[in-house]
Amino acid sequence: MGPTKTAIHFILNGTKVSAEVGNNQNIIELLNQLNFRGARESCGQGLCGACTVLIDDVAYSGCLEFAAMLDGKTVRTIEGLEKDGVLDPIQEAFIEAGAFQCGFCTPGFILMIGQLLDKHPNPSEDQVRHYLSGNLCRCGAYPEIIKAVFLASEKRKVANQSL
Predict the structure, then answer these.
(1) Which class for 124: exposed (0-12), middle (13-18), buried (19 or more C-beta within 10 A)?
(2) Given 63, 80, 97, which residue is the final one in a domain?
(3) Per the count of CB atoms within 10 A, which of 46, 83, 134, 148 is most buried?
(4) Number of domains within the chain
């Protein structure tokens, strides 16, 4: 008896997607199959944040969650942040602050920062450190990442004023 497949339907970065997933297939494996490679499996234990995806605007560790759970959900990955060739303010802030070196952890950090700034538009440094404590940067770009959070907060304020 072979592995069982389940048909799922969900919205990925604004596009309706249908897929057949195995019972033990995780979200990262499915995203890779769909050619979305921003979220990456690293530790395989949900401890590093490299596999972060947003499901119905809540951050999840894609390495721990079964792909079948996405049925009927809305999923956002790093690939879904830019709009019509324009980077999200958080992506711009990461570039301007030099908040990455190898870039492996960057997508997870950016998604978590977006969730942080949605909840706390003017976070304190303690809030930032606490909120991002589940994301690891092996290159040690933490000072620049913290700087990028505050820069992104300012960029969002300016963007919201121009609406």
Answers:
(1) exposed
(2) 80
(3) 148
(4) 2
Distance, in Å, from the CA atom of 130 to the CA atom of 155, rounded to the nearest integer, reads 22
Written as six digits, the tokens of 95 are 């570039």
DSSP string, 104-158: SSHHHHHHHHHHHHHH-SS--HHHHHHHTTT---TT--HHHHHHHHHHHHHHHHH
pTM of the model: 0.91
* 89 within 8 A of 95, measured Cβ to Cβ: no
CATH number for the domain harbouring residue 57: 3.10.20.30
> What is the C-alpha radius of gyration for the chain, rounded to an integer number of angstroms?
16
Q: Are residues 145 and 96 in the same domain?
A: yes
Tracing tokens 């969900």 back to the chain, one arrives at 10
CATH code assigned at 116: 1.10.150.120
pLDDT in tens, 94-136: 999 999 889 899 999 999 999 999 999 999 999 999 999 999 9
Q: Name the residue among 139, 116, 115, 10 with its Cα closest to residue 57.
A: 115
Within this chain, do residues 105 and 130 fall inside the same structural domain, yes or no? Answer: yes
Q: Which residue has the tokens 């933490």?
A: 142
Q: Are 76 and 93 in a shared domain?
A: no
What pLDDT digit, counting tens, does each position of 128-151 carry? 999 999 999 999 999 999 999 999
